[in-house]
Each structure stands twice: as C-alpha cells, then as structure tokens.
Amino acid sequence: MSPPVAAPTFFPAPAAQRTAPVGTVERPLPVIIDSDPGLDDARAIALAVARPEIDLLAVTSVGGNTDVRHCTENALRLLALFGRPDIPVAEGADDALLGGRIRAPEIHGAGGIGTTVLAPSPAAARAEAAVDLLAATLRDHPEPVVLCPIGPLTNIALLLRLHPSLAGRIAHICLMGGSIGDGNTTAAAEFNIYVDPEAARIVFESGIPITMMGLDVTHQAVLFEPAVERLRALPTRSGAVGAELAAYALAREGQWYGTPRMSVHDAVAVAHLAVADLVAVADYNVRVETGSGPARGKTVCDGLARRIERQGRSPNAQVGIAIDRDRFEDVLVEAFARLP
Ligand code: RIB
Ligand code: CA
Predict the structure, then answer these.
(1) What is the CATH number of the domain that holds 321?
(2) How far apart are CA 306 and CA 247, in angstroms?
(3) How far is the CA of 108 from the centre of ligand 2 (A)?
(4) For this structure, is 70 an active site residue?
(5) Which residues keep their CB under 5 angstroms from ion ligand 2?
(6) Residue 66 lies in a domain
C-alpha cells in the first residue's frame, strides 16, 4: 500500500452546469488574453490561435513570470511563431497596484521562456497601453468579449477602475489563478493572485461572471515526457518550440516536485472556452485575502451553499474541479499540429 498523503479537507462542492460561453467553429468566441508569457502562457496562446472556436482579438502583457518588457516581446514572438503576427499586442503594468514586484525565474527562467530563443516578430507592440487596447476592443467589438487573464490581474483591475462603463461589454472572465486548497507560491496563495491580491479582489468583487481555473484543476492538467515526444515528433517549428518549452518546464518543475512533470496551468482556461465538456466546474463564493499575514493572496473558496447563504453572500465564480487529462493532452498536441 502506498504511504498516505494529506488530502485537502474542503467541502466537495458538486459539479454545476457551466456558465462560461464556449466557441464553435461557426461562431468563434471573441477573446482577449492578458498574459505574462511564461512557459505555460505560451501553450495557452498557441491553443487560442490554433482552435477555430476562438477568435483571439488581442494579447495584453502584464508583469508576472518575468518583467513586462520580456512578456511583451515573448507575446509578439510567440504570435509570429504561431503564424499570427497580425494579432495586436499591448504592454500593461509591470508592478502590482500597490507596487511590489514578484517574479518566477526559478520556474520560467529570467526571460520567461526558459532558454528558448524565438525569432523577432515583424510586428511591434501597439503604442497604447494594455488598458487602452482592452477598452477600445471592448468598446468597438460588435459583441461582448471574453477576457482570459492568465497572469496577475493588475491590468484587468485597472480596466475596471478606469472604464467601469465597459464592464457590460465583458461577456465572461475565464482566468487561471487561485486555488480551493493549497497555494504554490506560498502555502496559501497561487502565484497570479499572490503577485497582486488587491487587483484580484477588485476582479472577484466586480460582479462580472467569472470562471476560475485554479491549481485544483490545473494540477490535474499535467504533462509528462511522452507529451514532449509527441510535440517533438511534429514536423513544424511550433511543434519543436512547444517541445523545447515543455522539456524546460518538465525539468524545472521536476526539481520542485521530484518527478519530471509539468502542470499546464494557463491552457486550461483557454481550453474551457473552446471545448464544452473538458473541465468540470462548481459554484463557489471566492474572496481574496489582501491582508499582510501568511494567508495574503489566498482565494478563500466556499462551495457550501447553506454557509454562503447564512453569511449573506452568493456564488461569484465557477471554479474548475476536474479535467480529463488524457483528452487535454490530445487537445494541446493537436493544437500545435495545426500551427506552422
Ligand atoms: O500559478 C500558475 C500561474 O503562475 C500561471 O499563470 C503561470 O504562468 C504563472 O503566471
Ligand atoms: Ca501565466
């Protein structure tokens, strides 16, 4: 019998009918990704470009895994690699709302994409700031747009504070971040929330429909060495780069968790927008701890309806609770197979 391991002692909230929209080939979902590329961000962007169910309108960058100037350049070069240098990129906040700069070079490398060197993009970042591109796109697009933040939520919080009237043009926020159980950056907090808890609190209190893909589901979305081989076997530059980024992540996470594996955090948020039945979600009331104690950045997730009600609160997010890992790996590899 294998040695016992600790299991999170939280209430097992039942799966609920998803509220996030899902794109179709006939009616692709308009999406903006806000990102800190980032090894797993790269896979998320690849998936968004490759899936016909998603119409990726723009990518905005935010400081997180690495400094925002690297995130911007990585986003430009990744979009060019994936054959879409036409998708606009605008640079956002480098530091958190209240200042402070937390980075993750130990996982993503100093420049954010390991040791991979990507060819420069023929396109440049837009002159306007991320919040301005977000606002203009929300204002001008013929239908409400889905925001898919996969880094710290600083840009999204600034958007909501500077352009409160545009909240109605946001169809849904499908984010990677938070956790029902333990954190990763601290025992309490997941990285994207921990970098800017005040921004996360603004987003979760906004009243906009939210799907939170936290560590509980992204740590089920794990790839191992065979997935790297599947990417490496693709006859494309995107496949080769995908394999290179994955191999780097596998080695780095392996040092942290003891076995060569990698959680493909960000791509779960994108996959949920393209594949209707890949991720199971449950209704939660999510609050963000913004104090200065050891729980700073924790997403306090309550899925027990009667307790939420008793405290005069209501569910404000759907939280990812389960994913079909094997199918998710196929979705990722097939996406890279569609790219140049
Ligand atoms: O905790 C995982 C998240 O932090 C992912 O978005 C990863 O890219 C890092 O930003
Ligand atoms: Ca990220």
Answers:
(1) 3.90.245.10
(2) 45
(3) 10
(4) no
(5) 36, 38, 41, 150-151, 266
(6) yes
